[in-house]
Design goal:
heterodimer, A: MetI-like fold, 10 helices, 0% strand, B: 259 residues, 9 helices, 37% helix, 24% strand, globular, ABC transporter permease (chain A), transport (chain A)
Chain lengths: 259, 259
């Protein structure tokens, strides 16, 4: 193969691996500068927010509310994945199921999240079940659509292989079906978490008396922007931690055979 | 080992326009236990369909398939070397072989032993995409034999290999087959290959496919290695085959042949 001749490597500004941290530091710097220029209590600077964050962590309150929210994220995520996979795979495998469920899926995909949340609260009361269910119902159709694509491209050649060598149900699922669905599962997980942790906050804001969403509403009403930002940052850090500690290693493991 | 009796009254495929095309019509084939039968014929004449029916993968035909049960009534083990190696790309080579064996305490060691036997002692931890086609075919051969097949089905397993590699693998197949002694159904479009390997050759022709020739290969092992002897035997097969394609010999339909 003819490779294009590489231009002589430019001396990278600061070295490549420092670019991300540098952009973060730059962002905080800009924020600080803007806060000084605005000079208003409603636009607190990074130092003030960091102080508030530490105070809230020390009081134990922040960790409690973040924990509650993460718990809701986890439960509704599991529910949505289970339901979405079951429905999606069934739709991908059996055209009849697909034709029956397709219209419903299309409707559910286009119902605004807020409508589902309000209806759940109205019909089931302001309960934990209603909150978690509302989130799960919002997410399930997206998982189903994704998994339907995955099930449609399952290679029948490998199914034949599993039959000839008598893999049985469990072994076929584990070694033949799931590895083929893995990229779709991972994509669903990624999109799922991104969507769910946003909806969970709305659900908490509308009908719960704990969790990050509840606190955000409280501080909104009190005009305590430093506390509001402290909670937001704590939550964003959690989401990034899940991305780097769970999702990326999982992705690496799943795609190991492709390298 | 098991004997195999196929009696296909009708096997049809839909054409592009939906009209059915008959692949087999009143077709019978009987393979005595322990026989190495090669099935030769032009591509598209239904050889792979025949193997899939023999394997029990294709059940959509009108007719009967009988695979001799083992002493004690156990279902016979089937090994199938598909046209492409068909290794699970997300499992290591060793794991691919191991999976075919089912629940056995020594499956790992047995898989390694089979890999060594087919000339891949170090390929166990590799993923299939790291293998050349020849190596992947060897791994597929190990997988097919590791189940101690009572019936071994092979679909042009040495096609699209360079002649030296194909020859190595033929030699290997012949050696292992002689020692393990199962029934083998070997599909090829290469008549020389059939002459070198098989105890009996069935040539298919026409549409729907019919048996054009059914002959025992009575060459000594040494003669099978001699290109001149192989060529002479092949020519003997071809001469009457031209007329036989038009008017099949009545005897060819009959069960039998072999040793």
């Amino acid at each position: 193969m003819a490779s294009s001749t590489e231009a002589p490597a430019r001396s990278a500004f600061l070295g490549e691996r420092w670019h991300r941290p540098a952009s973060l530091v730059g962002l905080i710097g800009l924020w600080g500068l803007a806060a000084v220029l605005v000079g208003d209590a409603l636009f607190p600077g990074p130092a003030q927010v960091a102080g508030e964050l530490l105070r809230q962590v020390a009081a134990g309150e922040l960790l409690f509310h973040v924990g509650v929210t993460l718990g809701r994220v986890a439960v509704s995520f599991v529910l949505a994945m289970l339901a979405g996979c079951a429905v999606g795979v069934a739709m991908g495998l059996w055209p009849t199921v697909n034709r029956l469920a397709d219209g419903l899926l299309l409707v559910l995909l286009n119902v605004p999240a807020l409508v589902t949340i309000i209806l759940c609260y109205v019909w089931l009361g302001l309960t934990e079940t209603a909150a978690v269910l509302a989130v799960a119902i919002n997410k399930t159709p997206m998982v189903a659509v994704n998994m339907r694509e995955g099930a449609r491209v399952l290679d029948p050649a490998y199914a034949e292989l599993a039959r000839v060598y008598r893999f049985g149900r469990w072994k076929t699922l584990r070694h033949v079906v799931v590895p083929q669905l893995a990229p779709y599962l991972l994509a669903s997980t990624r999109n799922g978490l991104a969507l769910i942790w946003k909806i969970v906050l709305v659900v908490e804001l509308l009908g719960r008396s704990n969790g990050v969403g509840f606190k955000l509403q409280l501080y909104f009403q009190l005009f305590r922007i430093d506390s509001l930002l402290a909670y937001s940052i704590a939550f964003i850090v959690c989401v990034l931690a899940i991305e780097f500690a769970v999702l990326q290693p999982l992705e690496k493991r799943i795609s190991r055979w492709q390298r | 080992m098991s004997d195999l009796k196929l009696a296909i009254r009708a096997k049809r495929y839909p054409r592009h326009d939906g009209s059915p095309v008959a692949v087999f019509d009143d077709f019978a084939l009987s393979v005595p236990a322990g026989q190495f039968l090669a099935i030769a014929g032009p591509s598209g004449c239904g050889k792979t369909t025949l193997l899939n029916i023999a394997a029990g993968l294709d059940l959509e035909f009108d007719g009967d398939r009988q695979l001799g049960r083992l002493a004690g009534g156990a279902a016979p083990a089937i090994g199938y070397m598909f046209q492409e190696p068909r290794l699970l790309p997300w499992r290591t080579v060793a794991h691919n072989v191991e999976l075919a064996m089912g629940a056995r305490d020594d499956a790992g060691a047995a898989a390694q032993a089979w890999l060594a036997r087919v000339g891949l002692p170090d390929a166990g931890p590799l993923y299939p995409r790291q293998l050349s086609l020849g190596m992947a075919r060897r791994a597929a051969l190990a997988r097919a034999f590791c189940v101690a097949p009572d019936l071994l089905l092979m679909d042009e397993p040495f096609a699209s290999l360079d002649e030296a590699t194909a020859d190595d693998l033929r030699q290997l197949l012949r050696e292992i087959a002689e020692r393990t002694g199962g029934t083998i159904l070997f599909v090829t479009h290469n008549v020389d290959e059939a002459v070198r390997l098989a105890d009996r050759i069935v040539m298919l022709a026409g549409q729907p496919a019919a048996v054009a020739r059914d002959v025992a290969v009575d060459l000594r092992p040494a003669d099978r290695q001699d290109p001149e002897m192989v060529r002479r035997f092949r020519d003997r097969l071809r001469e009457p085959a031209a007329s036989a394609a038009v008017e099949p010999e009545p005897a060819a339909r009959a069960v039998g042949g072999g040793r």
